[in-house]
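Folded chain entry —
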Amino acid sequence: MSFRPLALILAILTLTSATLPATGPTPEKRPETEQLDSKTGDASNNGNVAKPTQRPDENEDNQAKPSEGEIGNNAKPEAQKPDVQKETEKPVPPAPIMAENEQDHAACLVDLKAIGATFESVPRIDDGSGCGIDKPLKVTTVLPGITLKPEGTMRCETALELARWTKEAVLPAAKAALESEGELTTINQASSYICRLRNNAKAGKISEHARGNAIDIASFTFKSGKTIAIEPRDEDSTLSGAFQRAVTASGCLYFETVLDPGSDEAHENHLHFDVLQRKGGYRYCR
């Protein structure tokens, strides 16, 4: 008799009669898998999606603020800070009147007397706003027999260059072009010292006339009574036109600035001469 079948039957009976222990651990329920919304692709979690808690701003000033164009009935503009009172802008004080070197002025007076000009020293001029002359002269005669009409107030340097120009340029040109009119007797000036801005403007730089550096020539009168007025003469083919162009061109040999009727509307009836010193000896002649 074989024992192998009997052992198999006993093993089966033992397994079928076995039971789980009453106090054994209960397995945890598996969490449901989140379902995706087929339309949006967002996790639906069966409609119970947890909302994140909003973190409070650390600084309210970091919040976005509406621009000026976005401010409406529902948006309050940013509180404006009171304006800080600005300091009152102080006007730029005018340049002081240039103090003239004593030795240079004395040397100029010697040269001016030697050339034959008639003049007198007058008290220092200070009209405020930067207008004035430290050592002014009142000139009545440019050269012997040639009157400055009316008399002009200017610095010695201006008077000396005027006398030199008259002697070395004007008289030779007058003799060549207008000898029949006789000797030159008068230089008629339109402006010497006067406190004003350039071109009589209401704003801008101060005129060289206001510093005694300038003289405006309006016309020349000869012994015959003929007067050659300064006017636009670029196309004037007469001897009067040639005379004016000659004395104008030669002016830049003596003065640092020469403006004639061709330069601008403000100088259509006179020649402007001044002794304004520029860097590098530059001269402006038009």
Remarks:
- Residues 143 and 167 are 7 Å apart (CA to CA).
- The radius of gyration is 51 Å.
- The chain is about 20% helix and 20% strand.
